């Protein structure tokens, strides 16, 4: 099976066929999952903000979500999300597949009772699948994702600092990548750049406007994710059988 984890608008679009819902118990809490098919391929889908969309970024139980993937036999996980653009020269909307991240503020880990150090990063296998799936559409094939804690948006002063280090800003993908690596899972994310971050091009950010633009671009992102699932299956899983 292949995993997909998505944001606030993934529930509003029919992603899977023959869906069944399950609640998975893990050492870190429970995770709500949907199991179904994309083009005949078994997929496990998790809505990171909960099915009621009531889990803000700083309360998401990343260890439970990714342990649930592992418990169900998932090795490869595709993330999707919405980010703010930190670069004035980038024309919006577009997709980005980050190749690295900065996360100074999150303490998310599965290792609370023993000393373990991992080398963090996104999976190059999943990144490649996303890039192949996105050929022919506007996509930035690498870049730095800067994670803030949330749930509030960033100040103009914060954006002036982090725009020198990164290309986009979000609140979840770095934590997901870290926990996935700790659990030995392959994870990467494709993000819709829906808006410029606070102060870029003198833009003033409104959360409802961000949600509206993210919803408009969700179909494009899901199209890439669906194709990436097929690439992962063909390249990394089907050959084993």
Order of helices and strands: EEEEHEEEHEEHEHEH
Mean pLDDT: 90
What is the count of β-strands?
11
Structural class: alpha/beta
Q: How does the overall form come out from the CA principal axes?
A: globular
Give the biggest sheet: 11 strands, mixed
Radius of gyration: 17 Å
Amount of helix: 25-40%
The name of the CATH superfamily reads: Nucleoside phosphorylase domain
Count of helical regions: 5
- Give the uncertain stretches in residue-range form: none
Strand content: 25-35%
- CATH architectural arrangement: 3-Layer(aba) Sandwich
Reported by name, the CATH topology is: Rossmann fold
Give the N-to-C terminal Cα separation: 13 Å
What is the CATH class designation?
Alpha Beta
The number of domains is 1
Features:
241 residues; alpha/beta; Rossmann fold; 5 helices; 11 strands; globular
Written account of the structure:
Helix 2 crosses helix 5 (207-237). The protein is α/β, with parallel strands linked by helices. Strands 1, 2, 3, 4, 5, 6, 7, 8, 9, 10 and 11 form an eleven-stranded mixed beta sheet that branches. The two termini are 13 Å apart. It is globular, with a radius of gyration of 17 Å. It has one domain (2-240): 3-Layer(aba) Sandwich (Rossmann fold). The model has no long low-confidence stretch (mean pLDDT 90). Strand 3 (29-38) and strand 4 (41-47) form a beta hairpin. It has helices spanning 62-71, 124-133, 156-162, 173-182, 207-237, and strands at residues 2-6, 17-26, 29-38, 41-47, 76-85, 94-96, 100-102, 139-140, 144-147, 168-170, 186-196. It has five helices and eleven strands. The longest helix has 31 residues, at 207-237. Helix content is 28%, strand content 28%.
